[in-house]
């Protein structure tokens, strides 16, 4: 892999990719595939579907690279494209309208084993935080995920979720307020797992 690409801006990396630089393409894949997989798994537990959509996404962008516009944020562009494709495929596979809540289901789960917080006490608190997160509406969970896991701005969240920036802000604010009210003692953990940036 071309080492000089590793320290370039996203705009330079994207431009090199658009010009057919395979090293730039590989670096984009390497840099973003893990986050895409995590993001995709929030919409569905169907691992194969998420992997297929990611693979199709990378094939599509390679084949259409010369026709793609300049991406200010590669992560945002890829997340947005993946979300559209996942929702399209999930809707196509639904057999009834009752299966679709708020156009799609957005789950969010904290991986207790990966986090490994000081044994029993903290693991119980994490379990309670997970339960509180599951009670939030899907759109609030998605906004929280995008804001604190993906570090997207409110404008980027709004664009990705097809809402206004003020609605994105309200989703995050209301989600945090509900968590704070229902789980005051563990709010400290929330900021450990969702670093504010």
TrEMBL record:
Domain RNA polymerase sigma-70 region: 28-93
Ranges of residues in domain RNA polymerase sigma factor 70 region 4 type: 128-176
Keywords: Sigma factor, Transcription, Transcription regulation
The keyword Isomerase belongs to this UniProt entry's keyword annotation: no
Annotated CDD domains: Sigma70_r4
Signal peptide positions (record): none
PANTHER family: RNA POLYMERASE ECF-TYPE SIGMA FACTO (PTHR43133), RNA POLYMERASE SIGMA-70 FACTOR ECF SUBFAMILY (PTHR43133:SF46)
Family: Belongs to the sigma-70 factor family. ECF subfamily.
Protein name (database record): RNA polymerase sigma factor
């Amino acid at each position: 892999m071309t080492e000089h690409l590793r320290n370039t801006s996203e705009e330079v990396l994207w431009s090199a990719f658009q010009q057919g630089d395979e090293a730039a393409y590989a670096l984009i894949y390497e840099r973003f595939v893990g986050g895409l997989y995590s993001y995709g798994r929030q919409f569905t537990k169907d691992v194969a579907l998420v992997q297929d959509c990611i693979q199709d996404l990378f094939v599509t962008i390679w084949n259409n690279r010369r026709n793609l516009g300049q991406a200010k944020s590669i992560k945002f562009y890829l997340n947005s494209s993946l979300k559209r494709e996942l929702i399209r495929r999930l809707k196509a596979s639904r057999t009834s309208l009752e299966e679709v809540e708020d156009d799609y289901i957005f789950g969010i789960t904290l991986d207790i084993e990966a986090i490994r917080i000081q044994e029993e006490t903290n693991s119980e608190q994490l379990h309670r935080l997970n339960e509180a997160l599951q009670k939030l509406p899907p759109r609030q969970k998605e906004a929280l995920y995008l804001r604190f896991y993906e570090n997207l701005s409110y404008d980027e969240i709004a664009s990705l979720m097809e809402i206004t920036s003020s609605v994105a802000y309200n989703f995050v604010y209301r989600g945090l307020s509900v968590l704070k009210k229902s789980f005051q003692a563990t709010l400290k953990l929330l900021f450990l797992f969702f670093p504010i940036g």
